[in-house]
Every structure is written in structure tokens, then in C-alpha cells.
Write a structure and sequence with these properties.
- Helix content is 70%, strand content 0%.
- The chain is built from 5 helices and no strands.
């Protein structure tokens, strides 16, 4: 067989349904904001693209810090950490919104979940 997943495994993937681990007290407080942000997303916008854009914000933060100090011994300007903090907030928001977008557009899938958790 050319594939790593057996026919039985593929059938199980088709039946798979994600079950959340629950909400923390902070999730409950911030969820109205995430719901509002999700309404700003156009219906044609793929949830995986939202995930990827959020991931890019983290990559930018890492590259920015690395450009200023690869040794973790130097002095990094304060604005770099401010940008990294803002990027982390944007990433967190997009990470919460991508699943809401998937449910809004009825495009949830095991592959989308794998991509989301892989980028996390």
C-alpha cells in the first residue's frame, strides 16, 4: 500500500469528532470578544488561513528577537518585547477565532484540527 493509514483508519478519521477539553475561567471572560472578532471575518475566509496568519505573527516575533540577540545575553530594546506581546495577543485571538470560523462556515475537519494544533 502507498498510504500510511489503512482503509480502516481512514474510515475512523471520517467518523472523528473533536471534543473540547472545556473552558477555563479566562476563556469564559474573553469568549465574548472572540465571538465578536469571529463575526468580523468574511465567510469566504478559510479557518486554516486564520490559523496560518496567527502562526506568522509568532514567527515575526521570534525573528525580531533573534535579530537583536541570538545569545540571550545582550540587551534587546523594549519595543521588541512590546511588539512580541501584541503579536502574542493577536495570535491568541486568531487561535480562538479559527475554530469559531470553521463552525460558522461548516468547514470543520480533522485535518483543520491537526493543522491548528500543529501551529499551536
Amino acid at each position: 500500500s502507498k498510504f500510511f493509514i489503512t482503509e480502516e483508519g481512514l474510515a475512523e478519521l471520517k467518523r472523528y469528532k473533536y471534543v473540547s477539553g472545556g473552558y477555563s475561567w479566562l476563556d469564559v471572560k474573553v469568549n465574548p470578544y472572540w465571538e465578536w472578532v469571529a463575526t468580523l471575518m468574511p465567510m469566504w475566509l478559510a479557518p486554516n488561513l486564520i490559523t496560518f496568519i496567527g502562526f506568522l505573527f509568532i514567527v515575526v516575533s521570534i525573528v525580531l528577537v533573534m535579530c537583536h540577540d541570538l545569545t540571550f545575553r545582550g540587551v534587546v530594546p523594549g519595543w521588541v518585547f512590546l511588539v512580541a506581546g501584541v503579536n502574542l495577543f493577536i495570535y491568541s485571538t486568531l487561535d480562538a477565532v479559527d475554530g469559531k470560523q470553521a463552525r460558522r462556515t461548516k468547514s470543520s475537519s480533522p485535518l483543520g484540527q491537526l493543522f491548528d494544533h500543529g501551529c499551536d
